[in-house]
Amino acid sequence: MSSPEPVAPPLRRRGERMRRAVLAAAVDLLSSQGLAGATVGAVARAAGVHETSVYRRWGTRENLILDALTTELDAALPVPDTGRVRDDLLAFFSALARLLATPQGRALLRLSVEHDDTLEDRRGPYWSERLDRAVVMVRRGVERGELAPDTDPGLLIEAVSGPLFVRVLLSGAPLDDVLVRGLVDLALTGARPR
Amino acid sequence: MSSPEPVAPPLRRRGERMRRAVLAAAVDLLSSQGLAGATVGAVARAAGVHETSVYRRWGTRENLILDALTTELDAALPVPDTGRVRDDLLAFFSALARLLATPQGRALLRLSVEHDDTLEDRRGPYWSERLDRAVVMVRRGVERGELAPDTDPGLLIEAVSGPLFVRVLLSGAPLDDVLVRGLVDLALTGARPR
């Protein structure tokens, strides 16, 4: 316990290696063949493990896919702190737009709106947690006096992120930097003449 | 042809009556039992017609449901023209929020994001057409000088409607007038101090 470099016991490390191999295979299959292609059998074959080991660890195919996507995507959405609210928002929402334009991002969002009892507790929270993290950019803007004191941080984040999600889910319209800039500037400045 | 009150031939009128009865039954079942309860058999029984007549007219269950929901909901989203852009937007988006809070509205939106080849061509356009209609409120605001001349009308409509759709599809957070007012005022005024 006082060791400066505590290491997991061998069994656990093997488990972690297996876990990473399976998740990487799942992400590859999701990217190349979409949700339908990422069956437990195909993932297990690609990772070189037994199908039963996958079921033992994840229980269901849905849990495996969710774990693969969230692990993969979590690194892709850092919350910046540039000292200027507009730059922070542009960086964050450009990253979100890029993410939603990837096959994995689309797959995770599609999975999030499908009815499925086994996932109900984890998918909604996935996006809410990421957007909750983003709220701090707005709070800092208020503290610096860049934004009005009565700004509702959550509402601003919803107003910029909502159209990005809707374009993926409903309209299929493209996500690009022009769109992100337009939404951020509308939320900051409004459409009234100044 | 020069008759002042042209009437449809008897056969066609019977068809229209049958159509309305089936659509009303479908809406009732969707409201009371959700998407899963609105089978062709249940709808036909409730409308007092043969299941084969329903298939002959609509082809698939999905077409029937879509027809029922769009017919029902079309009357619920008028585009107001009060002479003030804020009042127009509040009225329109409050109506949209109320609509999305009904079982039928939810059902139509859920149906719109589900993958289904038979509906692909009609569901996306359903919402796009309704939002396209809304753009005129913003244009009139620009013409009256209430909004900046470089306002992007479609973007403003997306910024207000997006969060409403996302709350239904992803977060399950409530849709109320406080939310609608907050989104409309953010899009009009922005979060920067004035």
From TrEMBL, chains A, B:
Pfam families: TetR_C_11, TetR_N. The keyword DNA-binding applies. Keywords: DNA-binding, Transcription, Transcription regulation. Residues 39-58 bind DNA. InterPro entries: Homeodomain-like_sf, HTH-type_TetR-like_transc_reg, HTH_TetR, Tet_transcr_reg_TetR-rel_C_sf, TetR_C. It comes from the Bacteria. PANTHER family: HTH-TYPE TRANSCRIPTIONAL REGULATOR RUTR (PTHR30055), TETR-FAMILY TRANSCRIPTIONAL REGULATOR (PTHR30055:SF148). It comes from Streptomyces salinarius. Residues 16-76 form the HTH tetR-type domain. This is TetR/AcrR family transcriptional regulator.
